[in-house]
Amino acid sequence: MSNRTLKLNSCCANILPLKKRKEKKENLSRDKGSSRSRLLNGIMAEEPVNVNGFRELARQTLPKMYYDFFTGGAEDQYTLKENEEAFHRITIQPKILVDMSSIDLSTMVLGYSISMPVMIAPTSRHKLANPSGDIATARAASTCNTIMVLSISSTCTLEEVAACCNAVRFFQLCVYKRRDITAKLVLRAENNGYKAIVLTGDSPRHGRREADIKNKIIIQELKNVEGLLSTKIVTDKGSNLDALANQTRDPSFTWEDIGWLKSITKLPILIKGVLTHEDALKALEVGAAGIIVSNHGGRQLDYCPPTISVLEEVVHAVGGKVPVFLDGGVRRGTDIFKAMALGAQAVLVGRPVLYGLAAKGENGVRRVLEMLKEELELTMALSGCSNVKEITRSHVRTKHDRQLLSLL
User: Which domain holds residue 384?
Assistant: First the structure.
């Protein structure tokens, strides 16, 4: 073989036929595309290590209009911000040299055992976050053995959510002007295995959420009232949320009307939206089975107090007669611990669940719940509490406590 032939063969050994080169290029292109897809799906991206990490993923994933809808509050958003900031002003007082070889987070809520003192708060329009909507959220709650409170404004029907998995669920209720529609919703919840009614008491009118007004957000059809109530509201203000709520909900519903609600259901009724000693006593008077200290996530009345700041006032008013729960601003296991030390039997989380749902669907919701559980377990271990009943008032100091101590 000539030197020229050897050189030619040597060169050709590193050259693929045109067809092969084309196939290789296509494979590389597919690999790059799938890598980009995995990155967009959050698999190759840095995994969130806390709720705020999921919030950032949700921001990157959602259209701005939907992200603003989930994260926004009323007017100046003072209450929205204070719900979180108020937790930061409470310190934890750990007990040391306590046996922490076993830690039990299990909690009883209205006689039902759940894996941790964390439930899912009622939040609307989950399909804006993920196509599977409330069903994905419900399945994650079931996997984590906790309670989901389904919103009356869910984007899946209460029947669809009930059928998707076995779990304890509550149903959140706003009272409509047409009481017959309200009664039908309560009956449907009872017939489909929901274990309690959560009555929202802080929404005679719709809060002024300026981001939604600017974005001109239009509501999706409300699945639970399909065929019962028209939700096609025409408005010249861009967003139709305010007009819809004000046209359909009953602003005249009062404490005296809770007797009517109790007469149409055997389910226990929790009252959501209590922020004062006086309203806590009224809730007891009308026979509430529980109280949820809530300011609607800062989405209704701006400049009302952050929930953690009034929790103890409500707990003292109730005097142990019914359980007290809290929502608003819970983003860490330490927040859950602080709420329980101030008397809450459990907390409810809303926005963190929506962040998880937007970022990673059902798995995202599950991971958010797991994170909060893991953080709470660690907080309990480092604070000397082997079960939730051992979390007491002596484990925290509020700003007021510190002011009193400074006078000694």
Answer: 51-403
